[in-house]
Predict the structure.
Amino acid sequence: MSAATHQGATPYYFVPGPSRHPAMAAFGLFFVILGAGQWINGHQWGAYSLLFGLLWWAFILFQWFGDSIRESEGGMYSDRIDVSYRWSMAWFIFSEVMFFGAFFGALFWARNFTLPSLGNLEHQILWPDFKAIWPSQMDGITGSPAGIVEPFLRVGPWPIPTINTALLLTSGVTLTIAHHALREGHRAKTIAFMWLTVLLGIVFLGFQGYEYAHAYHELNLKLSSGIFGSTFYMLTGFHGFHVFVGMLMLLFITLRLQKGHFTAERHFGFEGAAWYWHFVDVVWLGLYVVVYWL
């Protein structure tokens, strides 16, 4: 039940009424999981189920977020709701830290413990042809004695990863400038630097797509290229997905700014998207060093 509110007054703590959105979003996600599972197992109809689920889910989220925006712009959110949103975003980003930490941990463990262990004297009896090497040290060679992993080359740090690093770091600067401009009441400047930040994110994704095509076709680096290939694509791929999501967040925040939403005093929607984008920047710096250099 919604909190009782006098005309023009902000409720002590706004509680929205019953909503169909959670159930409808779960309905769409069901088709996403069903379709993805069937598609990767060779059933082509799974692709259509996946597409339907994604479109349905996106449509529901558009409506759901629209309701939240109308509630916020309608003066329904007090400082207590603001605190709730801040804690929610903080815990969400913490869960993302743990998510990427698992993949970084897998990469670290495979390289520093599993690989040397499989190459020790004990295992030489079982696999005499096994080479305990890391691809970033010996390009073009794999440690697969059965030949199930084809030789491949790694992606070096130059030029695309370095260019992408510069792009993301620059986007962090432009976003910070936009934030300060919003706090000072300079809406036009805020919008201009937000559009620049969104553009930098799009360019980053374009370069990453080109890098993937180059790695797959010219370096023979695939998801099936042993532990190096799987961790490379899982880390960089999930990061690219997070860049895409963050870019959409910033895009919609920019569109809201153009509609006159947010003030110098109250703009957590902006800040939440900025937190997420800076988190994405930090993860990329870790990727740049661990995946491309080491």
Summary: Residues 1-77 form a domain with the Helix Hairpins fold (CATH 1.10.287.70). The chain has two domains: 1-77, 81-293. The two ends are 55 Å apart (CA to CA). Residues 1-7 have pLDDT under 50 and may be disordered.
